[in-house]
């Protein structure tokens, strides 16, 4: 293992660059598994890039001892910054004399069908543990490493827990000259629902209405709703042709449900990030003329119940904007820490900050 940098007198840290999901999961999976809900974005994106067998069984048997052995045997190239055009992950590890290395921060730089994703940051540390003396040197190391891997234009935005993102964005802007966009792209709560918090409802669907997975004959209507959802975001609009690409992928993978009002699809609910015990609702949208009729609540409750009770997920997670009225819907379904409720453990404040002049991706 190469020489380590020293954030303080008692510990040292090192960054590994992983150019494949399999290499990343070989060392990070034990930590990600222990924090499967909060790590949903980085874990799910990595699992999508490995074989089904590896995702379902191989990494399930990876232990901290295996990760330690992998770290100890890694050659110098794993620690050296190097440019790459594909997906990669940076992991920052720290250790103290006589202790095992611990995974402190993950940086994910990946893409998908419609382009590049933001830079995602994740840490197993709770927000209360993000003291500046701990956070600043680690984020500085990661940003300096990233600067040698990609052009600054690639980093169009960064998303993660608020303290991570603010620290990264300030330093990234300083070293690249790319100014932070004046308004956040997204300011949201990360929330979850489990079998104990889930709230059932006795409300009946109107006659002729149904809740179901979308099918290929629904493609045009689903694409239109995907486009409207993207256009609502302002920062990541979609053409109808690109929305069709997204809709076809979601339908073919069985990852999107619809509220069907006698043939008119009013609402969509997508579940695109799935790990062994956790699923994430990643898109909920009702077309304007059908709003305030309970469509989204019916559909979100239906999908959440299927994931928890039929599929056996331990929890369902989602992000919802601070000012988004959908908080009320999710709160009524049983998602924790919303609408003024106590912010229980695991309910986190998240932020996406963009950079002026960068090459905008899509998510």
Automatic annotation (TrEMBL):
Q: Which residues form the signal peptide?
A: none
Q: Where is the N-acetyltransferase domain?
A: 210-354
Q: Which domain of life is it from?
A: Eukaryota
Identify the SUPFAM superfamilies for this entry.
Answer: Acyl-CoA N-acyltransferases (Nat)
Do you know which InterPro entries this protein is assigned to? Acyl_CoA_acyltransferase, GNAT_dom
User: What molecular functions are annotated in GO for this chain?
Assistant: acyltransferase activity, transferring groups other than amino-acyl groups
Q: What is this protein called?
A: GNAT domain-containing protein
């Amino acid at each position: 293992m190469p020489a380590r940098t020293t954030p303080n007198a008692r510990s040292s840290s090192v960054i590994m660059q992983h150019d494949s999901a399999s290499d990343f999961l070989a060392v990070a999976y034990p930590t990600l598994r222990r924090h499967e809900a909060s790590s949903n974005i980085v874990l799910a994106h990595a699992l999508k890039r490995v074989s089904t067998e590896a995702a379902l069984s191989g990494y399930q048997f990876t232990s901290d001892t295996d990760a330690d052995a992998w770290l100890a045997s890694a050659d110098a190239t794993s620690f050296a910054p190097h440019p790459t055009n594909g997906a990669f992950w940076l992991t920052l590890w720290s250790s103290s004399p006589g202790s095992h290395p611990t995974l402190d921060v993950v940086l994910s730089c990946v893409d998908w069908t419609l382009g590049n994703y933001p830079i995602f940051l994740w840490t197993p540390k709770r927000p209360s543990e993000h003291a500046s003396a701990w956070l600043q040197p680690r984020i500085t190391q990661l940003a300096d490493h990233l600067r040698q891997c990609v052009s600054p234009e690639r980093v169009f935005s960064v998303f993660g827990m608020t303290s991570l993102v603010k620290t990264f964005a300030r330093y990234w802007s300083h070293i690249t000259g790319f100014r932070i966009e004046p308004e956040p792209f997204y300011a949201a709560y990360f929330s979850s629902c489990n079998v104990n918090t889930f709230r059932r409802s006795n409300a009946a669907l109107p006659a002729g209405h149904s809740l179901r997975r979308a099918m290929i004959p629904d493609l045009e209507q689903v694409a239109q709703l995907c486009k409207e959802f993207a256009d609502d975001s302002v920062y990541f609009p979609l053409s109808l042709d690109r929305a069709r690409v997204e809709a076809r992928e979601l339908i073919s993978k069985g990852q999107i449900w619809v509220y069907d009002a006698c043939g008119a699809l009013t609402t969509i609910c997508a579940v695109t990030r799935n790990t062994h015990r956790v699923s994430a609702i990643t898109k909920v949208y009702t077309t304007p003329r059908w709003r305030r009729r309970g469509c989204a609540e019916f559909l979100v409750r239906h999908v959440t119940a299927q994931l928890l009770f039929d599929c056996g997920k331990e929890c369902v997670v989602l992000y919802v904007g601070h000012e988004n009225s959908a908080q009320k819907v999710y709160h009524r379904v049983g998602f924790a820490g919303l609408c003024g409720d106590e912010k229980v453990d695991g309910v986190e404040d998240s932020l996406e900050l963009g950079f002026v002049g960068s090459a905008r991706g899509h998510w």
